[in-house]
Write a structure and sequence with these properties.
The chain is α+β, with helices and mostly antiparallel strands. It has one domain: 2,3-Dihydroxybiphenyl 1,2-Dioxygenase, domain 1 (Roll). It is 17% helix and 43% strand. The protein has helices at residues 15-23, 71-81, and strands spanning 3-11, 28-32, 36-40, 48-52, 64-68, 85-91, 96-102, 108-114. Strands 2-3-4-1-5-8-7-6 form an eight-stranded mixed β-sheet, with helices on one face.
Length: 117
């Protein structure tokens, strides 16, 4: 299993202010679903920050997202390790397959993979 990117998730209702602030550092908005917006560096597209007011389908908002090449394998590894699964593996309408797991420090991690057509 390979990690493709790691994205910090900032919980905030001030998406416009974050867009302006991170824009000063060269970030551009690359995704906006209303409840989550992601900003990326044009020169390093995997350098990203997401700002979210809440999570659309989960009871908690994750602290970070980790995209992997095989989310099903990651889920099995985490389950077998005894880690706390906060949100079971599921497919989302916006094209990702994901689950949430709690890290040893108590942070919620969104582990995801993009579904391919």
């Amino acid at each position: 299993m390979a990690v493709r990117r790691v994205v910090p998730n900032i919980q905030s209702e001030a998406a416009q202010e974050h867009r302006e602030f991170y824009g000063l550092l060269g970030f551009e908005e690359v995704m906006n679903h209303g409840w989550i917006a992601t900003f990326a560096s044009p020169s390093q597209p995997n350098a990203q920050i997401s700002v979210m007011s809440h999570d659309k389908t989960a009871p908690v908002a994750p602290d970070m997202s980790i995209e992997v090449d095989d989310v099903d394998a990651a889920y099995e590894v985490m389950r077998e390790s005894g880690a706390e699964i906060v949100l079971p593996l599921q497919d989302e309408e916006w094209g990702v397959r994901r689950f949430f797991v709690r890290d040893p420090g108590g942070r919620v991690v969104n582990v995801l993979g993009h579904r391919h057509a």
